[in-house]
Structures are given as C-alpha cells and as structure tokens.
Amino acid sequence: MKHFLAFFIIALFLHSCTSELKPAEFETIAIESPFKADVSAVYSKATGNSILSTTINKNVETAIIETLNTSESQQNLEEVLKAFNDEYLSFKKDFSEVTEPAWELHIETELTYQSETVITIAISTYEFKGGAHGNDKIKLLNLDATNGNILTVDAMINDISGFTKLAEAQFMASLEKDKNNSTIDNFFFGKPFQLPENIGFSEEGLILLYNVYEVASYDLGYTEFMIPFDEVESFLKVR
Q1: How confident is the model over 120-161, as pLDDT tens digits?
Q2: Against a cut of 0.90, is the pTM above it?
Q3: Are residues 67 and 134 in the same domain?
Q4: How many domains are contained in the chain?
Q5: SS3 (DSSP) at 231
C-alpha cells in the first residue's frame, strides 16, 4: 500500500509538471456587434482557463487598448468599442450636417512567433474620426511563454549597446535595398540612429519596426527591417 501511494504521488507530481509546461494554444476571436460606426475587432486569444491563458489574454487586451486614443475608464475591449460607437453617434447628432464617411475603428492581431520561452503577437489598430487620414499603429507584444508576463527589451537582449550597433548596420543595409532610394537623411529627424519601441520575434529573426511619424514623415509610412537569427543570436537572452 505504501509503495502504491508513493507511486501515485510521483505520478501526480509528474502530471502536474507536464500540465504546467503545456504551451499556450490560441484561437481567433471576432467581436461582431451592430455598431453604427465602422468597427471590427479580430484578435488572438489563449484558450482555456489556466493562469497562463488568463495572464496572456489580460496583457493582450491591455496592449490593444493602449494603442488606442481612449479613456482610462474603459477597462476592457468591448467597452472601448461601445464607447467609440457612442462617441460617433453623439457626433452625428450634434453635427448632422457633416457628410464625412463613418468613423472607423479596426483591430487585428497576428501570432508571429511562439516557442517554449517567447510569444510575440503583432497588434495592428486603425482609428478614423474624420479629417485627412486616420491614425494607424502597430505594436509588437512579447510575452514570456511560461507565465504570460510581458518581456521587456532588457529581458530579451543581453547587450543593448552592441545590439544597437548591429541594428544600425542592418538598418543601413536595408536602405541600400530600398526601391524608393531612401537614405539615412530621411530618418530620425537629424538625430543619431535609435532603436524602435517595437522589437519582436518572427520565424526568421528579430523584427524592428518604427510606427508612422516615429522616425520619418507620414509619407514614408512604417519603417521595418529584420535581423536574421544567425546574426542576432549572440545578443538574445531568449528565443
């Protein structure tokens, strides 16, 4: 009996460890409500009710909301979408003579990378409330695959100074391949090279992405380049 009990405890422990190490699985969620504004939200959501899934989903939802021009009082995505639609209806009521197109709010995410240690999700948002053009933004969200917590750049890269030099060289190399004949003078508004806020993983390497207006004029749009894994490997704490 004692031997059986010991075996049962060991088996239970091994099962528990296996469950804890099970990687997160994702599904695509679409919020489809009868909004009067042009609103859509299609995003990645970790399945299940584990602590890992709950943490991932909370961080993804928070990151989405942070990319939008919204009130801090709105705590979840559905509230944000409803508030945007309500604001549009209020605008239409107060300015019924305005014939501009309907306001737009579009949210989309993509799981760009997943390993035993890292999950990277690209979050793309677009807002339009009239005017010359809308406001679009991309955020690369890096999560610890074991607990769902957000990974900072310092948690991913072991030598920021050395990595910055590598990134600058890769950026210059990407300009040489640019069909628009862009030069370094078109970027950074007269300042030295700087790392972007958005650094994330893809299957081929590390993506570095600058949003519109971050380092160049609106006409140039997003600025993006990739450093292959074989060149950036020595700088990575996780992969």
Answers
A1: 999 999 999 988 888 999 999 999 999 999 999 999 999 999
A2: no
A3: yes
A4: 2
A5: helix
